[in-house]
Structures are given as C-alpha cells and as structure tokens.
Amino acid sequence: MSISMYQASVPVFIRYLGNLRAILEKAAAHAEAKKIDPATLAGSRLYPDMLPLTRQIQLASDMAKSAPCRLSGTEPPKFEDTETSFPQLLERIDKTVAHLKTFSPAQVDGSEERPVTVNTAKGPLTVPGLPYLTQFLLPNFLFHVTTAYGILRHSGVELGKADYLGTA
Fold this sequence. Notes:
Layout: H1 10-33, H2 38-42, H3 53-72, H4 86-100, H5 105-108, E1 115-120, E2 123-128, H6 129-154, H7 161-165
Helix pairs in contact: 1-3, 1-4, 1-6, 3-4, 3-6
C-alpha cells in the first residue's frame, strides 16, 4: 500500500490549524474573562530563550502553507510576520487554511521522490518528498502547534488533550 502524500499532509494541516484556531479562541475568551491583556498572552513563552506564542503560530502557518507547495514544485506564498493580536493570528490561520484548500490530491500525490530544498539554520537541506514530509515538516509543524498549546496552558488557559487533538 502506498502513501497518499496529499492525505498525509493537507488534511492534517487543516485539522490541526483548526484545532489551533479553537485553542486561540479559548485563549482570547480566557483573557477577557480574567481581565488579562491579550498582548500578554500573545507575547508569552515557555522559557526566556523560546519564541513567543505569536511566532509559534506564524511558524506553524509557514510550515503548513509551504509543504504542499514544495511537494508540488510551486512557490509558497509569503506572509508578513506582523501579527500581534488574537484576531490577527486567527486571520493568519484562516488565510493558511484557505491556501491549503486550493490544493488537490493530483498536485501533491506522487511527490515521494521529488527533491525538496529547504533553508534550515544549518544551511540548505535537500531531501526527497516523503522524508521531507514525514521526518522534517510534520514534526516541525506539530512542534509549533504543541508549543503554542503549552504556552497557553501554562498561562492558565483551560485546555485539555481534546482541545489539541480536536474531534474526529
């Protein structure tokens, strides 16, 4: 049985971005109910040397929007990283999901061996599509989603595992 590169990527990104959206909505409601400045939550981090919530969301968005582009051999769209508020972060997620929905299985499937080059902190990395997706992109995407969840949970937002996983 072969893997569908589309099914292993686009629906996964859409699902977890939707879950992340719901988590951010809970965080905004929490800030309002507890009279916390939303900018405080948006700038929160788990540790001083880690990136803040806003950057975690931006990076999750970047990972998701670029994957089907790289797998299909097209150029990823560029989003400015200027979001500072919950409404702006929600809009970015919505824009990312809308972009993902423009892809069809025919554009992404069959990319298991297509060379994909990404710029990393250590320099350019070129790998075939399947290892790019399964060993680089998905773990990175889920790291940033998980870290955003962790920041908000650590900040007192009432979240549980079901918020992270969403509903089937």
